[in-house]
């Protein structure tokens, strides 16, 4: 089918646009909430994988750093687009299937936006734990609305104190970002320093004091339990490898996430140079944090300590960190404040990035038109309200780790599509200037890791709940009716002219597929790996 570009019949586009107000350092601080994401699942991964969990984190962040080189290149092709790698990747896939491109944008948003609910919920939990007794009415009251046992046993939708406080946190974050990207970046720089520095202290001090014990890090064998429930060493059989791949699966959600630094390309003063500097500097910070913190955390506590319920659900992480640096009640209080600020920073990073994905997805014709509204500060407020409303619903769910696992299914789908977008752009848009070019050997490695991600999706998703993979596939497929509404009803089957302006393309260019059948071969191979891995790896 010939793809056309919308003319006036498609309707007006909002005259306001995002403001070019920051440089790469502003984007670095906007992405500074990513290191704090290690706190979301550090206990859950250790409690699933066992001793090799610190290796999982190092492998995962290393893979994410290699992948970021591809994202830095394709971001440079679009100096006037916002929204991150999924938007830039969608422009590569649109030639090969109208519905393939919006899957990339949609899956990226579904992967990022739950950080709002998860982060606000965990922060609310810390506040309740510190200021209220366990038996207080404020902590025990709950209204259960309905059960979601069909998705996961014990999963419910409820309203309680965690929901109320979490909702207030989300509204505060919204208020800060309503003032535009420059104000948000300045605020996050202050909060980011208050978070990253303590994380580095936690990662370095135990190494200097000798509290990191090699016996807590080795031997590298998967977790297993005896008949009476005691922790023991497992073996590298199918079940052992399934647990390890399940750890890599869930770690990717955090360790790859610094690619959000390129969500602000259309807000950079000098996008040609700022884009690569932003993502690579954010990646180096994440390599440091995601290596040191899991290593020292496990090296001090040991696997049995990491299996404590308070570590797995996050409620006792502050106390553990205070113990690791040799602090008493004052240090404990500071750690609680730091963790709350870290979660707040992660929520701010998520709202800034995910709202811009919705905004640019609307401008480019993938998502409903109302999302392309920008206020006079240059903030995409309609997209931000959509983020807020969606996450108030997620905040009512009783199991945040399940929400994280489902969103990560979408994240790995997005990563697969966008890593292949790098070489597709090189073939289909070879003549387009590239301010920064990924070294070809690194691009080849990144494509290899795209297939590794497909294996992780098939093998690791259901480690976190039997229905996780299917739930993720259904969530990804929801974009089909949404895109159909925008494209065929709102735009009459035409794409907005703005979609590929940065590549100087016309409607005729979209019908030229220089890459031939190879994108379809890559897609089919990825789907085959997901299915095969799902059949081979099981507990």
Précis, in short:
The chain has 539 residues and is mainly alpha-helical.
Task: Walk me through the structure.
Keywords: Cell membrane, Membrane, Transmembrane, Transmembrane helix. It is a multi-pass membrane protein. The chain crosses the membrane at residues 27-48, 54-72, 109-132, 155-176, 188-208, 238-258, 279-301, 321-347, 400-421, 441-461, 468-489, 517-537. It is found in: Cell membrane. Residues 1-15 have low confidence and may be disordered. Helix 5 (100-112) runs antiparallel to helix 14 and helix 8 runs antiparallel to helix 15 (381-395). The protein starts with a strand and ends with a helix. It has 539 residues and is mostly helical. It has 20 helices and six strands.
Record keyword descriptors for this entry.
two-stranded parallel sheet, 20 helices, 539 residues, two-stranded antiparallel sheet, AA/rel_permease1, mainly alpha, single chain, disordered N terminus, 63% helix, globular, APC_superfamily, APC family permease
């Amino acid at each position: 089918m010939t793809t056309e570009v919308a003319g006036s019949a498609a309707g007006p586009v909002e005259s306001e646009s995002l403001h070019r107000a920051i440089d790469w350092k502003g984007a670095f601080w906007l992405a500074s909430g990513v290191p704090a994401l290690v706190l979301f699942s550090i206990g859950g991964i250790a409690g699933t994988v066992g001793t090799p969990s610190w290796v999982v984190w190092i492998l995962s962040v290393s893979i994410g750093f290699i992948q970021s080189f591809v994202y830095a290149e394709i971001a440079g092709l679009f100096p006037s687009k916002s929204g991150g790698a999924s938007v830039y990747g969608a422009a590569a896939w649109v030639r090969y299937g109208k519905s393939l491109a919006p899957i990339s944008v949609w899956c990226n948003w579904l992967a990022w936006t739950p950080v709002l609910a998860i982060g606000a919920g965990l922060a609310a939990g810390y506040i309740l734990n510190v200021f209220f007794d366990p038996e207080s009415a404020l902590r025990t009251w709950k209204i259960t609305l309905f059960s979601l046992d069909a998705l996961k046993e014990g999963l419910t939708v409820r309203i309680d104190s965690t929901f109320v406080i979490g909702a207030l946190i989300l509204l505060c974050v919204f208020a800060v970002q309503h003032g535009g990207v420059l104000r948000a970046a300045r605020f996050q720089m202050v909060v980011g320093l208050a978070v990253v520095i303590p994380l580095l202290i936690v990662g370095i001090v135990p190494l200097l004091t000798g509290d990191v014990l090699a016996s807590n890090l080795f031997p590298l064998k998967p977790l297993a339990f005896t008949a009476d429930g005691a922790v023991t060493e497992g073996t590298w059989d199918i079940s052992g490898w399934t647990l390890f791949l399940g750890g890599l699966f869930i770690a990717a959600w955090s360790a790859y996430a610094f690619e959000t630094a390129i969500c602000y390309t259309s807000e950079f003063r000098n996008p040609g140079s700022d884009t690569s500097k932003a993502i690579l500097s954010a990646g180096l910070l994440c390599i440091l944090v995601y290596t040191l913190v899991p290593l020292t955390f496990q090296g001090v506590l040991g696997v049995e300590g990491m299996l404590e319920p308070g570590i797995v659900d996050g409620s006792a992480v502050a106390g553990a960190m205070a113990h690791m640096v040799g602090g008493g009640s004052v240090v404990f209080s500071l750690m609680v404040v730091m963790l709350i600020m870290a979660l707040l920073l992660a929520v701010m990073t998520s709202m800034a990035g995910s709202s811009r994905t919705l905004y640019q997805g609307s401008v480019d014709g993938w998502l409903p038109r109302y999302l392309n509204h920008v206020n006079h500060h240059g903030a995409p407020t309609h997209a931000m309200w959509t983020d807020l409303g969606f996450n108030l619903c997620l905040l009512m769910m009783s199991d945040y780790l399940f929400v994280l696992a489902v969103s990560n299914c979408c994240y790995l789908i997005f990563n697969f599509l966008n890593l292949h977008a790098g070489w597709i752009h090189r073939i289909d848009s070879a003549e387009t200037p590239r301010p920064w070019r990924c070294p070809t050997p690194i691009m080849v490695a990144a494509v290899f890791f795209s297939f590794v991600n497909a294996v992780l999706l098939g093998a690791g998703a259901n480690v976190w709940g039997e229905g996780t993979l299917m739930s993720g596939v259904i969530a990804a497929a929801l974009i089909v009716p949404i895109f159909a509404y925008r494209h065929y009803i709102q735009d009459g089957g035409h794409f907005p002219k703005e979609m590929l302006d940065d590549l100087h393309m016309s409607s005729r260019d979209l019908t030229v597929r220089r890459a031939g059948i190879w994108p379809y071969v890559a897609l089919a191979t990825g789907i085959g790996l997901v299915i095969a891995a799902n059949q081979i790896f099981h507990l």
